[in-house]
What does this fold into?
Amino acid sequence: MSPAGLGRFLARRLGIGAVLVVGITLIAFILTHLVPADPATANLGQSALGDPAIVKAFYHEYGLDKPVPQQYVIYLWKLLHGNLGMSEQSHRAVATDLGQYVPATMELALFAIVISVIVGVGLGVLAAVRRGHPVDGGLRVFSLLGVSMPTFWVALFVFYLFFFRLGWLPSGGRLSPGLVAPARVTGLYTVDALLNGQWPLFVNALRHLVMPGAVLGIFTVGTVLRFTRASVLEVINNDYVRAARAKGLSEWTVIRRHVMRPALLPIATVASLAFGSLLSGTVLVENIFSWPGIGEYAYLSAINLDLPAIMGVSIVVAIIYILINLLVDLLYSVLDPRIELR
Amino acid sequence: MKKQAAGGLAALLSTSALLLGTVPSMSATASTLSAASSGRTLVIDNSFELVTADPAHMFEPTGELVCNALYDTLVTFNGGNFKTVVPDLATSYQTLDGARKFVFHLNPAAKFSDGTPVTSADVVWSLNRLINLKGNPSFLLGGETITAGGPGTVVMTSSAPNPGLPYILPNPATGVLNEKVVAAHGGTDASNASTKDTAENWLNANSAGSGPYILKSFSTTSQVVLAANPSYWGPKPAYATVVLRNTATASVEKLDVQRGVNEIALDLDPSQSTGMTNVQIHKGPSPNVMFLFANDNPKISKITPNHDFQMALRYGIDYAGMLQLAGAGAVQSPGIIPTVFLGALPASADAKYDLTQAKAWLAKSGLGHPTLKLTYPTGITVNGLSFDDAAARVLQYIQQIGINVSLQPQSVQIGLGTYRAGTEPLGLWYWGPDYPDPSDYLQFAPGNLVGLRAGWTAAEAPTIAALATKAAQTTGIPARQAIFEQYQRAMNANGPFIPLIQPAEVVVGTTGIKNLQANGLWLVDLRDLG
It folds into this structure.
């Protein structure tokens, strides 16, 4: 595709994405206001609620004393200026909160997806190549277990075994207690520690990533494994693959050059969607491993009826999905040049 | 080729060893990497309920723990004894004009962490800021006028008697800030402070108090790090560094403290702490009172205002069963004031379970076998006791009397709405103290905040309303104890509230910590620990 064509494609998709984001803010706003509860009740103590001056100040501070449509218009106006409002639960700017929590979840999800794709694709190919063999059967059982075991159960089991029993890995959190986070560059502690040349801190952050990342990745490994196996089986007996074998190429070269490339399209789809769900669905893992990410923030926002935070989380998750879909479409055209971006 | 593979394998193994912490030189731990590596470090696990480290905005349990360590108050409590106020910044105080006026005399030795002395101007500024911010804790000093009677004297006056004031002032929300420092970072005590004060963000990264610790770092979701205040004017703090770590799951806290990774766990329930070895376990009644109410408003229910029906409920609850559910350390609440506070009824006043009496009262009510719903907040716990479990028990006991009850769980935010509106016929709720004084429980009096939630008006119970008014004005500890006992006995005989239990407060720590005890107000008192 020409650079101009690519530019038009990106502009169109990003434009549609912006409209989607506004639509999502409207839906989130309406749904939050349909809940028959009062944010003041959620955020003020019982005695404070009995003091009209305190309640009035609370409504005024968060703009809740204005009509609902006006609140929405004000919100959109602020959003246009990059202002996501103030969180009622944390008393901080929502953008500041998200800037803290999103990188934490991003780091966890990236770790999980990298592990998942490496392990899932590798085992998926192995299962396909050994189709019908006991290895294939074993891997299918493994993938079934991966997608069906409850995350919280796996998390508690892994925590008990590797932290409490064996003592190999640290308890929860992103760093050991008392450690100071590396100077912020990306917000990903492992990356920032490396960029700052803090090798021991990098190791500490990485060790804290292992358990929650692996638990989070187990479900995705199972999914990627199943898709990879199916995709590889679809192409492994095609004529051009047989022709490659007939030329005397090694099985590994055949798989790498002639099987994997077409098989990667559905794998890219499932991996990208899994990454999206990892980013937005980490509440349980974050809770068990005390990981200060967006999942926990979203949960607390919901139970505290913290409208600005709910809106902020909704926008971030929407943007993540929009960007991931866009990247997958771009990846398609790279993996298969016959696919035209429109 | 083989050499490359071997190298790759070696790299893989060394990386694995590194991650698993089997290479001591590289396995970074808190002790090797902590910035404050000199001196002892204490790590506490807590499921954070934390919004801010600005005392004047703070009204959450974890915030109280933090602010209590950072900021001194005029008076405080010693350990877990909430019945006696002891000096903090004030060496003494006088109660004048029928508890309308209090004069506090400051300790001249008190100084802030920057070495400047604590003056009456700082106290006045801090308390006025608390009032004028109109935040969550501002009601604590509602109606008070605060002035300086001199460099070392603070005068607090109110138009109505406020004998509970000395018991309100230990609340860390009334912590005294260094006026010059905080004002330089946007703080103000002006009447428009609710819109003009911008110091909260600064106070979430720094502290400006005179307490034994200073704030090193603050995160509401991961950890709070405190360091010993080198200028502290009192006894030197036992720990150089205290790390308060957010641990969302009590079972994880248990494993942490059992393995000795962290020293204190604050969120275990009695059953979780049972059977733990090589740790110290402290259990005691929390000041949280779980209660049942039968709405007195005939517009809400034709059944629940019936006095005989209310008495049937009072006798029909198996309190021992409720205590068994709550676990060791929990106690029955003889009145609405918890047993750990001044004014509490003695255990001899506990309501007694008597199913025969309960059935007799129900028969006397003439209601037959009425049908109604029990509303409660679902999904929340009080000191580890699940409301869902407690409601199931209450349901079982009430059904045994012959009342057809079904459960109506509501999410806490929705439930709070109906509870506050006074539209629940039969409700199961709890009250956590705003401050450890019996005056906080005058909210339950007819015509007052919680009383009205149960449809109980002053016109309906004028005698009890008069008792409440009298209790609010009575001064002197013996006289207050007597009047609040009288108030509660009257409520138990003729009120819509049925106090049930105080769940247990459990603190588990490693054996090396001295003076560890559960603290119903600020979870654990860092000042006490050795």
About this structure: Chain A has a mean pLDDT of 86. Chain A has 15 helices and no strands. Residues 199-236 of chain A form the longest helix (38 residues). Chain A touches chain B through 63 residues (CB under 8 Å).
